[in-house]
Amino acid sequence: MDVKSSIKTSFFFLILLFCVILFFTSPCYSDPDQLQDFCVADLNATTTFLNGFPCKPVSQVSSSDFFFVGFHKEGDTNNIFGVGVTAGNVLSFPGLNTLGLSMNRVDFSPGGVNPLHSHPRATEAGIIIMGKVLVGFISTSNVYYSKVLDEGNMFVIPKGLVHFQKNVGPGKAIILTSFNSQLPGAVVLPTTLFASNPEIPNDVLATNFQADETVINSIKSKFGSA
Ligand code: GLV
Ligand code: MN
């Protein structure tokens, strides 16, 4: 190989190395960009995709695929938390498939709490539509950030951080939240820890929380798994 072609080869491998490094170190801030105008999810397709669905044939796509009428009704808050979450994600609104975003309507009874949870795939932005709501999250440095918000105020929860909202007003409250993922996922701490299937062994939870196993059993019973 002459000098010229060995320089060319080295240059090629250098560029290749650069691309590989760039690929593995680039942060991914949201779902990937879409490759076409739209890809309305075919929820019945048998092929499985990671956080995504194959597209319906364009000939079967209609206006109704791009409109979601699920947020006009109050969510059911008749549960131990006093909260009702209506999800407008790809599963309820297939037109969101590949578009990298979704929304929730969250209803609170007076005193209701949207329990401590995190979204592994999305940052959350929200707005208070009705009432007065305490919004809080905890950073990975274990700092607790919180504020009581009124109607029209907005908040943001950085991706993956544990957070909650509590209705601290005298009446009902409503928030609308949005996510930079078509399916942000939710790890709800009380049910993840105390109502998983199969359950986390009591001795593991007892050591984690430095509590007696009777306390663990009592908490589990609140979620119907003891
Ligand atoms: C609120 O935290 C939500 O996930 O909708
Ligand atoms: Mn959330």
From TrEMBL:
Under the cellular component aspect of Gene Ontology, which terms does the record hold? Answer: apoplast; plasmodesma
Q: Which residues does the record give as oxalate binding sites?
A: N104, N114, H119, E124
In the UniProt record, the signal sequence range is 1-30
Which GO molecular function, any one, fits this protein according to its record? manganese ion binding
Tell me which Gene Ontology terms the entry assigns under biological process. Answer: plasmodesmata-mediated intercellular transport; regulation of root development
Which residues are recorded as binding Mn(2+)?
Answer: H117, H119, E124, H163
Q: Which UniProt keywords apply?
A: Apoplast, Disulfide bond, Manganese, Metal-binding, Secreted, Signal
Give the matching Pfam families.
Cupin_1 (PF00190)
Q: Which Gene3D superfamilies match?
A: Jelly Rolls
Q: Where in the cell is it found?
A: Secreted, Extracellular space, Apoplast
InterPro entries in the cross-refs: Cupin_1 (IPR006045), Germin (IPR001929), RmlC-like_jellyroll (IPR014710), RmlC_Cupin_sf (IPR011051)
Disulfide bond entries:
C39-C55
- Chief place of localization: secreted
Q: Which residues form the Cupin type-1 domain?
A: 69-217
Family label: Belongs to the germin family.
Descriptive protein name: Germin-like protein
Taxonomy, top ranks, is: Eukaryota, Viridiplantae, Streptophyta, Embryophyta, Tracheophyta
